[in-house]
Design goal:
Number of helices: 5
Shape: elongated
CATH class of the largest domain: Mainly Beta
Number of strands: 23
Distance between the termini: 151 Å
Helix content: 10-25%
Strand content: over 45%
Radius of gyration: 41 Å
Structural class: alpha+beta
Length: about 325
């Protein structure tokens, strides 16, 4: 082998040895860094922080002007949990305290308080740490809560119910409860006449149904112990029918009309079909035109059974003859 070949062979061996050495060094460096990081993360750190406290489940007859408070504390936790805490964005560092789950007391006037330990318990659950790892700066969380005005108002159903062909909603949907006690500031309560429901939408119905619908409490401007209402809707199969309703007047003047009846085209539930009678309808005649000797008198349908849906009537004018 010439000198050049020997040189290349030696160079190749040196390069392989160097590569193995660098690889071994990097492996040990990575192991060392991992051990160092694990050691650091296993150590405890004290972190000062502030968490927002949102209050929920406020009594219906009370109002909190600032439903979000804040609480300062110290976290004495290991590096793993510290890293977990740091990953929570500042705007998301809050917990919710339900007032129906904690004992609160009136301090004076409209100022109330509850133990900050309940906040510590919520934070401990969120960070998966022990409550003993949290030291609250204050023993209590204070908040202002005032009494509200009350008023009983009827509930108004907002709905869009469409039935299948030949079916109709029968009667007026019933609400349970039909009225509700609302609470709120006087300036709002005084303007409210009814509380509406959220919109109940049903399409292509062909049978009776019951649905629970939430109340519209004006985006929290008013409160109520009742949050939803049960709506019962009757649906029946309907059919068309024509009813010949006599045209009559009660004046002392005897009049004969041409035609003598008004034809009322209406929709009626099949179960009520046999109950529809002409005498249940009433036709009003404009008798002032009679006194003025008008050639035709205006007539209109004045009354009809509440279980009947009127489609149209004919005629709207009649000829007449005064009988001596």
């Amino acid at each position: 082998m010439d000198m050049t070949g020997k040189f290349d062979s030696i160079k190749s061996k040196v390069e392989r040895k160097n590569k193995r050495s660098i690889g071994t060094f990097l492996v040990f460096l990575l192991l060392s860094a991992t051990l160092w990081l694990l050691t650091k993360l296993s150590e405890n750190y004290t972190t000062q922080t502030t968490f927002g406290v949102q209050l929920s489940e406020v009594p219906a007859d009370k109002w909190i002007s600032s439903p979000e408070q804040s609480a300062k504390m110290s976290l004495n936790i290991d590096g793993f949990h510290t890293l977990r805490y740091k990953m929570i964005r500042e705007q998301n560092r809050f917990v919710t305290v339900a007032l129906d789950q904690v004992p609160y007391r009136q301090e004076n006037g409209s100022t109330y308080s509850f133990s900050s330990q309940y906040v510590a318990e919520q934070i401990a659950d969120r960070l998966d740490i022990n409550v003993s790892d949290i030291t609250m700066n204050e023993a209590k969380v204070y908040f202002n809560m005032e009494s509200l005005q009350s008023k009983v108002v009827p509930i108004e159903l907002r709905s869009n119910i469409r039935a299948q062909r030949q079916y109709e909603v029968y009667g007026i949907p019933t609400l349970d409860p039909a009225s509700v006690t609302i609470f709120g500031p006087r300036e709002i309560i005084d303007t409210i006449k009814t509380v509406k429901t959220e919109k109940l939408s049903k399409i292509s119905v062909n049978q009776c149904f019951t649905e629970s619908v939430s109340l519209d409490l004006l985006n929290g401007q008013i409160q109520s112990n009742v949050k939803e209402v049960k709506v019962e809707v009757q649906v029946e199969k309907f059919t068309e029918m024509d009813v010949a309703v006599p045209i009559q007047v009660t004046d002392s003047v005897k009049v004969r009309f041409f035609p003598e009846t008004m034809t009322v085209k209406c929709m009626v539930a099949i179960k009520d079909y046999a109950s529809v009678r002409p005498e249940d309808f009433g036709v009003a005649v404009d008798t002032s035109q009679l006194r003025n000797l008008q050639p035709l008198l205006d007539i209109r349908l004045e009354s009809w059974p509440n279980y009947v849906q009127i489609l149209n009537t004919a005629p709207d004018k009649v000829e007449y003859l005064i009988v001596q």
